[in-house]
Amino acid sequence: MLLLITSKISEEDLKKAAEELGGYIKYVVDIKKEITTAGGSRHVQGEELLLHNGSTQEDLWGGGLDLETGEVDFDSMINIRPNQNNPSREVLSPETRKKIEEIVRRLLK
Questions:
Q1: Separation between Cα atoms, residue 47 and residue 10, nearest integer Å
Q2: Domains contained in the chain, number
Q3: Inter-residue contact 100 to 74 (CB < 8 Å)
Q4: Is 35 a residue whose pLDDT tops 90?
Q5: Phi, psi (deg, nearest 5) at residue 40
Q6: I want to staple 46 with a disulfide (CB 3.0 to 4.6 A). Which of 10, 28, 66, 68 is the partner?
């Protein structure tokens, strides 16, 4: 189940978002609007949902949240952006990673 999250997620919706991947949630964060998607099997699904809702590509970053450990990762194919100095699946900018993690922890924890 893919959800668009604009305010703190309910416990019920968090569980629904985590069902598909067994306790792991893929997210795509819009760092400008400070919203995220949660769930789905591929980051591109969240990316498409956010783009459809007015987000811009340069503001979108993907990763995952392990509900068991609480670990946030920053790994997604949608993060490969040579034109934004990010030629890796991992988000390389410490500032961007910090912003992503703040949004994920506020909305998904």
A1: 22
A2: 1
A3: yes
A4: yes
A5: 85, 165
A6: 28
Give the C-alpha separation, 2 to 89, whole Å. Answer: 21
pLDDT (0 to 100) of residue 82 = 94
Rounded-to-integer distance, Cα 85 and Cα 104, Å: 23
- CA 37 – CA 80 distance, rounded (Å): 19
Q: Which two tokens stand for residue 94?
A: 């410490």
**Structural domain containing residue 19:** 3-108
Look at the block and give the residue holding tokens 């500032």. Answer: 95
Residue 76: pLDDT over 90 = yes
The per-residue pLDDT for range 57-71, each reduced to its tens digit, is 999 999 999 999 999
pLDDT at 41: 95
Secondary structure of the chain in HEC code, one letter for each residue = CCEEECCCCCHHHHHHHHHCCCCEEEEEEECCCCEEEECCCCHHHHHHHHHHCCCCHHHEEEEEEECCCCCEECECHHHCEHHHCECCCECCCHHHHHHHHHHHHHHHC
